[in-house]
Amino acid sequence: MRSSFRITSRFIGQAVEYDGVHYKETYEELESLMGGVKNVRYFSQNKNAPGAEVKNCSLCGMRLAVEDALIDKQKKNYQLKKGEHLCALCAAKRQRQQVENGSFPSIATVSGYHWISELKGKAGGEKRWAEYCKLFDGYFSDEYIYPENITLQAIKKEPFSQKHKEIERTNRELKAVMKDTVPLRKYYALVAFDGDSMGKWLSGTFFKEGTDFFKLQRNLSQALGDYARWVKGHLTRSDNRGRISSRGS
Ligand SMILES: [Zn+2]
């Protein structure tokens, strides 16, 4: 990991002496110096030609993937797909996500969540649902709530294919139970959070004249953190309303 970062990432930084009193002025000076460094920083072109020894990350496409040897050794932990190469940062993010959330839900799980939870909430719904899942001999996945995924053609290579008639019939029964309530849809929402002009906020452009710059900056940072924690708590409660995916780099 460490060597990869040395090869692929360039850390830039600036330091300004702080006298313990003029926090705002020092911060502004530091920010303007950082702006200058960003403007002139050196960009090197990554080579990703066929046959090249190093590959770009399959996720971010920006940084170089860590060496194959490292990927192979850690394959299990990184949960790599076949042919996937991750940079050190994306690999670390994925690993952290695994630790925090387990695997990420499929699109079918997300889009079918409302339907499944309403079904379970009906009288005898939990039992019906469990019986349906059982038909798949331990291979159930939420995609099997959609009729096109349980046709004989779709499941002919699955170990439970011989039950396809029973599966289709039970699926129709579940739909009949749900008929007048929630339709089985394939829609889901992706909500992206992005803080506008955060640089300006943190540098005090929008603060009132004469306010305690350090305190407001700290409060703003605290509020952002609190809000992010609230969103996370709201979504990842036991009823599984959604998942958080970290973006950016
Ligand atoms: Zn990456």
Brief sketch in words of this structure:
The protein has ten helices and no strands.
Would you kindly provide a written description of the structure presented here, covering whatever features stand out?
The protein is mainly alpha-helical. The protein has three domains: 2-101, no CATH class; 107-177, no CATH class; 190-249, no CATH class. It has ten helices and no strands. Helix 5 crosses helix 6 (125-134).
Shape: elongated
Individual helix count: 10
Tell me roughly what share of residues is in helical segments: 40-55%
Report the uncertain regions.
Answer: 1-9
Major sheet characteristics: none
- Topology as a string of helices (H) and strands (E): HHHHHHHHHH
Quote the beta fraction. under 5%
Name its key features:
249 residues, mainly alpha, 3 domains, elongated, binds zinc ion
List the helices and strands and how they pair.
Blueprint: H1 2-8, H2 23-40, H3 68-78, H4 88-101, H5 107-121, H6 125-134, H7 152-155, H8 164-178, H9 198-202, H10 213-235
Helix pairs in contact: 5-6
The structure holds zinc ion.
Zinc ion binds near residues 57, 59 and 63.
